[in-house]
Design brief:
single chain; alpha/beta; TIM Barrel; 12 helices
């Protein structure tokens, strides 16, 4: 992209502080559309440098049981793409932090590629994370995204060979999402020894920041990942806090805000 994007600026600001960035994830429409907007704002209030708003999907291949449960609640609540865009709009207008959408490709394709990019940009979105879109099939999206000033974040995995990593990172922007482990999302007692090696191999192919997700749930794990990555991505742990609140909105918001604060302290613990 010709000028530094809001996402790139946020990651650069964290780097200037000699720390990793903290990126939080929550699906739109969970526990409700209005409640989800408040929860995403709470992530930033707690200390997240950027946020990912998930577009709930009925067949999420990358998501584990915790996020699947949240997606099911959102889908049963009648979540629509318009509600996802409203979530982005209301969060982006209230905070000074990049707001990304994380979505599988099928909903974007059905909505219309150009239309989705235009509407996301109009809502104040910073870009998209597209975990199941092969780079070889991404030209239409990348053209629309660049036209509307959106970053496109692709996911790399420990199974990717170096030449594959280079092919993926060559066409992405904003940052590279490095999956710490093989498998689906969810909190883990250990982040996975493959993560550091994946970051090292990915950095050899690109100057983009490399942010690690899948498994981080504590300040200690955040500090561990922050020692070798440019960003730490946390999703399932935030979702679990809202599930544990059992419908009590204030308890849930306080819990995700507190966890964000703990994780923010973790990424600063070099």
């Amino acid at each position: 992209m010709s000028t530094r994007s809001k996402l790139s600026a946020a990651l650069a600001a964290a780097k200037a502080e000699n720390r990793a960035a903290l990126i939080g994830y929550l699906p739109a429409g969970f526990p409700s559309v209005d409640g989800g907007i408040k929860a995403v704002r709470a992530l930033i209030e707690g200390g997240c440098d950027a946020v990912e708003v998930g577009l709930p999907h009925s067949d999420p291949v990358l998501d584990g049981p915790t996020i699947q449960t949240a997606d099911d609640i959102a889908l049963r609540g009648g979540i629509r793409i318009a509600d996802v865009l409203r979530t982005v709009r209301e969060v982006a207008s209230a905070v000074d932090a990049p707001v990304l959408v994380m979505t599988y490709w099928n909903p974007v394709d059905h909505y219309g590629v150009e239309r989705f990019a235009a509407d996301l940009a109009a809502a104040g979105g910073a870009g998209c994370i597209l975990p199941d879109l092969p780079v070889e099939e991404s030209q239409e999206w990348r053209t629309a995204a660049e036209k509307h000033g959106l970053d496109t974040v692709f996911v790399v995995a420990p199974s990717n060979r170096d030449e594959r990593l280079a092919r993926i990172t060559a066409v992405g922007s904003g940052f590279v999402y490095a999956a710490a482990v093989m498998g689906v999302t969810g909190t883990r007692t250990q982040v996975g020894h493959q993560a550091e090696d994946l970051v090292k191999r990915t950095r050899a192919t690109t100057e983009l920041p490399v942010c690690v997700g899948l498994g981080v749930s504590t300040a200690e794990q955040a500090a561990e990942v922050a020692a070798f990555a440019d960003g730490v991505i946390v999703g399932s742990a935030f979702v679990q806090r809202l599930l544990d609140a059992a419908g009590d909105e204030e308890v849930g918001l306080a819990a995700v805000r507190a966890l964000a604060g703990d994780l923010a302290a973790g990424v600063r613990r070099r």
